[in-house]
Amino acid sequence: MILHTAPTPNGQKASIALAELGLDYEARYVPLLKGAQFEEAFLSLNPNHKIPVLEDGDQVIWESGAILFYLGEKYDTEGCILPKEPRLRMEALQLSFFQTGGVGPNFGRLGEALQKEGAKNTEMIEKFEGEMERLMGVLERILSDGRPYLLGTYSVADIMHYPWLFIAQKEGLTWFTKKPSLMAWIDRISERPAVQAGMKVPSKKPQ
Ligand SMILES: N[C@@H](CCC(=O)N[C@@H](CS)C(=O)NCC(=O)O)C(=O)O
User: Could you tell me the pTM of the whole model?
Assistant: First the structure.
């Protein structure tokens, strides 16, 4: 398998899942800042010019959630990350849509607004921070019954959220750090060897 990726949260979701399943693959770094995602070779894999993209023989999958479900369906015979039980499997899908439709885009736009040089657009920052606060409240509510992971047991639902929230924790963003169950959840997931390995991919950037 070939994973086209970059050191960003969406890429890390795929490398964590590959590591959790102990699968062999080649990680190919896509230098996004140089615009490599707009080159014809990359667009022929993903017309949406975004990483991650997984090539498995002649099957090409893009969208991080689809990649995680693909890996789960094809390679997770034990149900390590994709539950076998239909009800839990559907909940995994539900939380994955929640992540790609809510947490990812809102945090992404917030990051862009915060990194912008010069005069900050405070209206944008307030808007996206407010939405992130709300979304974190949803996750905190799910975890507040004492469950260790979003579905109860570790799954793709945790992998989908972790790399984004890892940044929020690292940056000390208050809408994250003020959520005790979420903070404990992130520490728990950070301890997993496969998560630590997946977060380091791609290890080397081409010059
Ligand atoms: N919904 C997509 C989002 C992927 C995404 O936004 N990837 C970013 C890096 S984290 C990217 O490749 N951006 C390049 C671009 O938009 O041109 C997924 O979950 O895979």
Answer: 0.95
Domain boundaries of the chain, sorted by first residue: 2-80+194-198, 86-192
User: Does residue 169 line the site of ligand 1, with CB under 6 A?
Assistant: no
Among residues 141, 133, 94, 140, the alpha carbon closest in space to that of 110 is found at 133
Q: Which of 29, 50, 93 to mutate to test the pocket of ligand 1 (most atoms within 8 A of CB)?
A: 50
Which numbered atom of ligand 1 lies nearest the CA of 10? 10
Cα distances from 66 to residues 11, 31, 63, 140, in angstroms, run 12, 22, 5, 25
Whether CATH 3.40.50.300 fits 2-80+194-198: no
pLDDT at 207 over 50: no
DSSP classification of residue 160: H
In the chain, % of residues over pLDDT 70: 98
- pLDDT per residue over 167-181, tens digit each? 999 999 999 999 999
pLDDT in tens, 37-72: 999 999 999 999 999 999 999 999 999 999 999 999
Hey, what CATH topology would domain 86-192 get?
Answer: Glutathione S-transferase Yfyf (Class Pi); Chain A, domain 2 (1.20.1050)
Q: Are 197 and 159 in contact (CB under 8 A)?
A: no
The finding on whether 64 has its CB within 6 A of some atom of ligand 1 is: yes
- The number of the ligand 1 atom at minimal distance from the alpha carbon of 8 is 10
